[in-house]
Specification:
about 375 residues; Leucine-rich Repeat Variant; rod-shaped
Length: about 375
């Protein structure tokens, strides 16, 4: 048998499978290049324990906010409870995350689960009320949108809780100023629908709920009718000190004469008919007659039965009577006569044999009308 040459054996050796032995590593190829390296330290400037904690916190917050739109009411309630505890434990960061929080919380005002709305009030009163008014002012319009929807909601339980959110919004932000600026007619119609002085069938049967509605309406009405700038002078005096700038220009000798003519023409008069405050009364005046009739009927029913409604109705009437807008309006006399007729109806209905307590307060209001 012919012997295999050495060159042939070398060629076959390249294709032969090497048997590996236990405990020994594979033989490296001849052209292997070692790329391993050693380093004493690896510095990552952006790596920190605090940043990792912040990321975890944001992930927790995002998860809780996402659960607020869960289809289960119990899940939404539990998420609100956890969110309340989470925000209460991190008060310094609250002002930086208030925007996503408010966007997630506002739709819960019209949530159909009572426990969710109750927990929403808890987080508003215990956590968000501590924020500065300037921070909440940027979210007032969103709050008012959902509050108005709740006040006219088809569900009685949502309507019953609606003024709680309105009361919180008015006391913790500039909601009153925004309502007066461009939403006053809308909110007067909303209150009319809520109380039912336009449609009696939509009235409120629970006196406890009605009492809070009346208290909130009194706060609203008092803020609208008793603004700081409502009492204005009949004529604004126009004076130009001619001594000012005498070294710069020489005033014309007829300047003072022309100013006096302008004052005589009453061109600078400032009455409620041309002031911005007059619009407040114009928005309330159409509701005055049904409002007074509604208040009179509720007061009579309360005096004859449960008298828990007497005090809030009394406060509303005092606000209407003492309002500078009504006192200085063009229709002041007609409005006051309307209020007087409402009080006379109460005197005729329940005044006989009952001249103490709240009825005595009605008499004081009547005397104030003159």
């Amino acid at each position: 048998m012919a012997k295999i040459s050495k060159s042939v054996r070398e060629k076959r050796k390249d294709f032969a499978k090497t048997k590996l032995k236990v405990g020994k590593s594979r033989q490296l190829p001849a052209n292997h290049t070692d790329t391993s390296f050693r380093s004493k330290a690896v510095v990552l400037p952006k790596q920190s324990v605090t940043q990792e904690a912040n990321v975890k916190e944001l992930q927790t917050l995002s998860h809780l906010l996402a659960l607020l739109s869960h289809k289960s009411g119990d899940t939404r309630k539990d998420a609100l409870q956890q969110l309340t505890a989470h925000l209460a434990a991190n008060p310094p960061r609250l002002s930086t995350i208030v925007t996503p929080v408010m966007k997630a919380l506002c739709p819960l005002i019209i949530d159909d689960t009572t426990s969710v709305r109750k927990q929403l009030l808890e987080i508003l009163n215990s956590v968000l009320s501590k924020l500065p008014r300037q921070t909440l002012n940027t979210h007032v319009r969103l709050l008012l949108l959902y509050v108005s929807s709740a006040m006219t909601h088809i569900s009685p339980s949502i309507r019953a809780d609606s003024t709680k959110y309105l009361d919180w919004t008015m006391k913790n932000s500039n909601a009153v100023e925004i309502i007066i600026a461009d939403q006053l007619p809308q909110y007067m119609n909303t209150f009319a629908t809520l109380f039912g002085w336009i449609r009696p069938s939509n009235g409120i049967g629970n006196n406890r709920v009605l009492s809070f509605h009346l208290s909130c309406f009194h706060y609203f009405l008092n803020a609208v009718l008793h603004e700081d700038a409502t009492v204005v002078p009949d004529v604004l005096e126009l004076t130009i000190p001619l001594s000012y700038g005498k070294d710069i220009f020489i005033p014309h000798r007829a300047t003072q004469y022309m100013i006096q003519n302008c004052q005589a023409l009453n061109l600078f008069s400032f009455t409620t008919s041309n002031s911005a405050d007059a619009s407040n009364f114009d928005s309330i005046e159409p509701h005055m007659q049904p409002l007074l009739k509604y208040m009179s009927d509720k007061f009579i029913d309360s005096v004859n039965g449960d008298r828990s409604l007497c005090t809030p109705i009394l406060h509303i009437m005092k606000t209407l009577v003492s309002s500078p807008l009504i006192r200085h309006s063009d229709d002041c006399k007609a409005t006051l006569r309307t209020i007087g007729r409402g009080i006379d109806n109460i005197d005729e209905s329940v005044g006989r044999g009952f001249v103490q307590g709240v009825i005595g307060e009605w008499r004081l209001i009547k005397e104030e009308l003159g």
